[in-house]
Specification:
InterPro entries: 6-blade_b-propeller_TolB-like, NHL_repeat, TRIM-NHL_E3_ligases. This is 6-bladed beta-propeller. Keywords: Repeat. One of its GO terms (molecular function) is ubiquitin protein ligase activity. This protein has 87 residues and is α+β, with helices and mostly antiparallel strands. It has one domain (1-87): Thrombin, subunit H (Beta Barrel). Helix content is 18%, strand content 25%. It is built from 1 helix and 4 strands, in the order E-E-E-E-H. The chain has a 4-stranded antiparallel β-sheet, with helices on one face. Strand 2 and strand 3 (50-54) form a beta hairpin. The longest helix has 16 residues, at 71-86. It is globular and about 35 Å long. The model has no long low-confidence stretch (mean pLDDT 80).
């Protein structure tokens, strides 16, 4: 997983994991991240139609499939799941 950051921004990378692909723990166009109250990361894997849950050390905990919907419906479903996770 990598993050694009503006050229003039100061940042520190504290964790990297995953790579491009379609197997569990890999990503094809990650577009959103939510962190729950237990510091687990939920990452939208857009082109693989899923959300992947990782612990704070980057270990894969769960894969949540998202059916292949039209983009607007897919965006809404992902938004609602993220909203529920963050409560």
């Amino acid at each position: 997983l990598s993050v694009d950051i503006a050229a003039n921004t100061n940042y520190i990378i504290i964790l990297t994991f995953g790579e491009y692909g379609n197997r569990e723990g890999e990503f094809d166009y990650p577009v959103g991240i939510v962190i729950d109250k237990n510091s687990n990361l939920y990452i939208t894997d857009w082109e693989n139609d899923r959300i992947q849950k990782f612990n704070s050390e980057g270990r894969l905990l769960k894969v949540i499939p998202i059916l292949h919907f039209h983009n607007k419906l897919k965006q809404l479903i992902i938004y609602l799941l993220f909203l529920l996770i963050s409560i």
